[in-house]
Amino acid sequence: MKGFGGVAIAVMMAALMAAACSEGSTSTEDPAVCQTGQTQDCTLDTGGQGAQVCENGQWGVCKQPPCTAGTPLKCTTTCMTEGTQLCNASGTWDACMPPVEACDTKDNDCDGKVDEGDDGNPMVQGCFCGTVVGNSQCISGQWGPCSAGTPESAEICDDKDNDCDNQVDEGCDKDADDYCDANLKVEGNPSVCPKGGGDCNDSVQTANPAAQELCNGVDDNCNNQIDDGIAKETCGTGVCEHEVETCKNGQPVVCNPKEGATNEICDQKDNDCDGQVDEDVQNCCTPGQMAECSVNAGECTKGTWTCQASGNWGPCSGKMPEPEKCDKKDNDCNGQVDDGNPEGGDECGKEEGECTIGTLTCKSGELKCSGVEATTEICDGKDNDCDGKVDDGMQADEDESNDTCSTAKDLGQIPEALLDDPSKSITVSPNLYKDGGVDSDWYTILAKETSDWLPCGLSFDDGCYLFIATLGVPEGVDYDLCIAAQECEGEEFNECAADGGPGEQEQLMLGWKGIWAVFIGNDDKQMNVQVKGASNADQSCAPYTLTFEFYNECPKDGKCPWDEGYVP
Hints:
Elements: H1 6-22, E1 39-43, E2 49-55, E3 58-59, E4 72-76, E5 82-86, E6 124-129, E7 132-139, E8 142-143, E9 233-235, E10 242-244, E11 247-248, E12 251-252, E13 290-293, E14 303-306, E15 347-348, E16 358-363, E17 366-369, E18 409-415, E19 426-428, E20 431-432, E21 440-448, E22 464-472, E23 479-485, E24 493-496, E25 506-513, E26 525-533, E27 540-543, E28 545-553
Parallel strand pairs: 18-21
Antiparallel strand pairs: 1-2, 2-3, 4-5, 6-7, 7-8, 9-10, 11-12, 13-14, 15-16, 16-17, 19-28, 20-27, 21-26, 22-25, 22-28, 23-24, 23-26
């Protein structure tokens, strides 16, 4: 008979004791809902915004957060108007104060009355009509006519309601450029037009006495002249140079700098109007004159120029240097091949996935991109083909039908083995990958008792049983491992392993003491094992490994390693 011993057993005992404490739980949620000291926003019972603090892994009561004394805050009054509340010296908010009453058929100040003044009667405000000050009363949410004054024949611009229509200086500055219409009388310095009158076009904001004259067929600056003062300009160069009017009939005159241009000839003039004289004419020469041209180097051969009757050099009888190309040749005949990165230098590639932007570079007569280019997509958690998607097009979960416990994939049975004898372990290597959604794999496996009917050591003790499930996940991926023993609800055992983080192995162990009496039953247990990802980003097309082990050993002094008082 073997016993549990060594350092490995001590670690196992701690895990088994933790598992035993959790036996019988029906919760499938992670109990650590928050970290102590963490805060988050919440909604008060009154509907306002509050805050709550995490205490011992659980969120506390939602409370109103402290405020800074004297700080104002908008609020909703008891009569559903917008009020204001102030933060007092103790850091808490005072009651919501309603706004003042307004002439709008609403109970703004929450006193049960509408559009009332301080005396409880309808609201009254001062007004000016014609030449005297009167009163205007609020009637059905609108200010009524002024109670005094005699209307004048027309409104003038003087900060007064001259025509008694409850409007002041209406129509004085329709384009809002601070200049009053030239057709209206202006007295003093009214607020509607602080810059005075004289606006010759009060419908266009850009036309007034201070505006700049433009070429548009309009008197912009109100001086009774159209398009005046617009300067002329010099157009073109060389033989094309001439002076033009920049504005004609309200339209800008377009300069044509090439008007009168001809092909360049050898005459000390800029015939093509490009600012250069006698350029690209193969030098000026005397008809019949000859000169040596080119060199015997690279792709070039030496030859002779002959001056033609037009005064221009004819073509070179040899081969002249050309711009360097990326072709493993010395095109410019300077003794070097493909020097200066010919035809290169432009940006190439793209910054997406594993791809990077580079520069076109001439190498061995070919233009190549110095950046990283797209490759075929492989299952490695990277966007190899640089299409903005990681591991797209990879093979989906081959056991996609086992998403629930009721459809778990049956792995058969695992027979018991002696402790530390992994020869009877079972390992599967599927993948957890559902493109566009959260995936979950379920497996069912029977921990099968295979020992004979004799009890351990011919005593009345039966064996100690230990079932172990180990999950190995791809690098950088975070999966969870859970077990529900005997049935999907896991009434005997229901536990999820502590989250080890991305790429970390997770393990769950379930231990129990067997039944010796042959006719009472056996010690088999049906294990329902789940592998799940928290979100689509946590899943990968790379396979995970799921290993099952099942051991049977005799107890010592009638106790199993997870029993209190067990001595190895």
